[in-house]
Amino acid sequence: MKGQQTLAQLPLMVPAVVRVVNRDDSRLSDLGFFCGSYVTALFDCPLGGTRLYFIRGMRLALRQKEAEQIAVEVVEDGTCENSGSGDAQYGQEHVI
User: Fold this and answer.
1) Separation CA 34–CA 5 (nearest Å)
2) pLDDT at residue 16, as a whole number
3) If DSSP states are collapsed to H, E and C, what string results for the chain?
4) In this structure, are residues 41 and 10 in contact, taking their beta carbons and an 8 Å threshold?
5) From 2.30.30.90, 3.40.50.2000, 3.40.47.10, 1.10.10.10, which CATH number describes the 4-77 domain?
6) CB–CB of 28/70 below 8 Å?
7) What is the reported pTM?
8) Which of 14, 21, 23, 54 has the fewest CB atoms in 10 Å of its CB?
9) What is the pLDDT of residue 53?
């Protein structure tokens, strides 16, 4: 795995694993953003400030401010192993 970065910095269509979530925002954990979850940035909204992510079998939009509260680590080979939590390998079938 490569170095950590925030979810807001993650390039599109690059799978990563969540490493740290700001504990002050329990809403992020409620949405599935917790350590060990696999996530991929799918789409930047045209007007900016919001991004669509694929995590735990769901598509979720987050504001940049929220995405900056999550540290992720890019998966080197471009695939995510099944973690047993509903995550699977990411591919083009997940793109809207």
Assistant:
1) 15
2) 96
3) CCCEEEHHHCCECCCEEEEEECCCCHHHHHCCCCCCCEEEEEEECCCCCEEEEEECCEEEEEEHHHHCCEEEEECCCCCCCCCCCCCCCCCHHHCC
4) yes
5) 2.30.30.90
6) yes
7) 0.76
8) 23
9) 97
For 55, other C-beta atoms within 10 Å of its C-beta total 21
pLDDT of residue 28: 86
Strand order across the beta sheet in which 50-55 lies: 4-6, 70-74, 16-21, 38-44, 50-55, 58-63
Query: Looking up tokens 């099944």, which residue turns up?
Result: 82
Q: Which two tokens stand for residue 74?
A: 């890019």
Q: Do residues 4 and 70 lie in contact, with contact meaning Cβ atoms separated by under 8 Å? A: no
Q: Which residue has the tokens 């939590």?
A: 85
